[in-house]
């Protein structure tokens, strides 16, 4: 796995490969480094955790299918809400090969698959992707924290439900968020204050 680390403008971008087949998660920066990492390999698809500008800036640079949730499709083009404003998004709708996926869908990946989780809360169409015990959570789950719910199409009740769902996954899963450090489900089960508070509330 390759990680293109976040900077002041853009989130982490991840590249996962199996044999000579790869998927790019939230391509937003370091185009030259991405191309170098892809050298000699096939880009089978792009996985979008959600449609905020700091996760999607490079999606127009590739011809591969883009996998995202339909609830975030309009957000790609609404610059008032996706963070591009006062600038305009750099990609064109006609150049994007959008494919909509839903909760528990499985995306073929060489001889394996990537599992899709719909985790609304940060945005209505937020997704997480699980492959090889690695969970890519975008802006839904962070180390000892969760994503904002006060932006356009965000929802605190949905974020609470999504966080409880993710922290109920097997504890050995490693978590790769869109920002900050990686973590594990086990660590979040014990240390994430939002999860601990919300699970306590749900059992009352």
Per-chain topology:
Elements: E1 2-4, E2 13-18, E3 21-25, H1 31-38, E4 42-47, H2 53-56, E5 66-68, H3 79-82, E6 98-100, E7 106-109, E8 112-118, E9 127-131, E10 134-138, E11 141-142, E12 145-146, H4 156-166, E13 174-177, E14 183-184, H5 185-191, H6 193-202
Parallel strand pairs: 3-4, 4-5, 5-6, 10-13
Antiparallel strand pairs: 1-2, 2-3, 7-8, 8-9, 9-10, 11-12, 13-14
Write a structural description.
The protein is α/β, with parallel strands linked by helices. It has a single domain (2-202), classed as Ribonuclease Z/Hydroxyacylglutathione hydrolase-like (Metallo-beta-lactamase, Chain A, 4-Layer Sandwich). 22% of the residues lie in helices and 28% in strands. It has 6 helices and 14 strands. It has helices at residues 31-38, 53-56, 79-82, 156-166, 185-191, 193-202; strands at 2-4, 13-18, 21-25, 42-47, 66-68, 98-100, 106-109, 112-118, 127-131, 134-138, 141-142, 145-146, 174-177, 183-184. The strands form 3 sheets. The protein has a 6-stranded mixed beta sheet, covered by helices on one side. Strand 11 (141-142) and strand 12 (145-146) form a beta hairpin. The termini are far apart. The model has no long low-confidence stretch (mean pLDDT 96).
Largest sheet: 6 strands, mixed
Number of discrete helical segments: 6
* Relative strand content: 25-35%
Number of beta strands: 14
**CATH fold group:** Metallo-beta-lactamase, Chain A
- CATH architecture type: 4-Layer Sandwich
In the residues, how many domains can be counted?
1
Gross geometry: globular
Main sheet strand line-up: 1-2-3-4-5-6
Based on secondary structure, the structural category is alpha/beta
- End-to-end distance: 41 Å
The SSE string, one letter per element, is EEEHEHEHEEEEEEEHEEHH
Q: Whole-number average pLDDT?
A: 96
Briefly, what CATH class? Answer: Alpha Beta
Query: Radius of gyration, rounded?
Result: 16 Å
- What fraction, in percent, of the residue positions are helical? 10-25%
